[in-house]
Amino acid sequence: MDYEEIFNLSYWRVFGTIVDEKPAAETMYGRFLSHPEIAAKFAQGDPDKPMQMLRASVTLAASYYFNRKPDHLLLKFAELHSHRHLGIEPHLYRFWMESVLQAVQVHDPDCNEHVLEAWRRILTPAVEFMQSKFET
After folding, report:
1. Is residue 45 scored above 70 in pLDDT?
2. For residue 90, what is the DSSP state?
3. pLDDT confidence of 63, banded at 50, 70, 90?
């Protein structure tokens, strides 16, 4: 199974569709902020910025997988999310992943178990990278 191709095709379907007048990033954002611990982390900031950053975070995560190394943006993102700045604890990244996967289910009309597995495989290395940088 070519999970890279499955992911790439799904990515364009997901970010190219509007469902119930919402783009995928807005769907992700709503699901992401439904978790109380995450909502508390983002309550004080600009309410539009996290939604804009969610799509960027998916793109950065995919880039990390395909390039096999972190680029300067992912390194900056990891620093910002570390204990020294935003303090996004490692366990919270699973809610990010769940939010992305739920948005995929809503926005990809061809979503199935293989599509979801492709997204997991592509995004997991970046999640693990971000988690590993919490204490640094």
Report:
1. no
2. G
3. very high
